[in-house]
Amino acid sequence: MRRFLAIILCVSLLAIPVRAEAPTKYVALTFDDGPSGRFTRRLLDGLKERDVKATFLLCGYRIKDYGPEARRIAEEGHEIGIHGYSHDSMCAMSQSQATKEILDTAALLPQGVRPVFLRPPGGQCGDGMCQAAKSQGLAVLNWSLDSKDWAIKDARAITERVVGNVQDGDVILMHDMYDSSVDAALAIIDALTEQGYRFVTATELVRLRGAKLQAGEVYCSFP
Ligand SMILES: [Zn+2]
Predict the structure, then answer these.
(1) DSSP secondary structure letters along 198-214
(2) I need a labelling partner for 125 at 20 to 30 A (CA). Which of 51, 90, 166, 214 fits?
(3) Would 79 be classed as within a structural domain?
(4) Residue 137 alpha carbon to ligand 1 centre in Å
């Protein structure tokens, strides 16, 4: 009888499926148009609490006004890329005009920051911009998921839009320019962390996916 029970037990244990560990899903949160004052500071506080690293695409004219925030972004281990000096569209700029936008911004970046990415304002690409990025050794980073935070300005709606559409390897576009964006970004992190996502910088996402960046090429996601 005991032997029979042991056999039954073994068979039933064999029947329990071994749950395969799901591969980790990674995404990069990217913030354009800053730095700004309290919005950037609130965002940095929330990212630090959650031990999350993000990517900030900074404008030169704003670094002039918000130098301490720019330095804090770098000091806290986030990635910094270039979003142009003036935030004028680079779509129709000549290579020399676009190069000036890049260099004028790079000159204001915190010490030690070596940007990998250029994100043109509005994501608008042109030949001059791509040539300028190539000549400066920068890859062009656009995005695969637009939170539309700049238009929606409602934290819950922004969060639902991102959480409902996100995919592994996404580059998510946001702006550290509004309280609703900051609230949404932190809610997105909390919700997607629950779902097994991890948040990394754009460069880290490239590394994790074994992608090879080429200067002047445009990238939107790293699935
Ligand atoms: Zn922008």
Answers:
(1) EE--HHHHHHHTT----
(2) 166
(3) yes
(4) 21
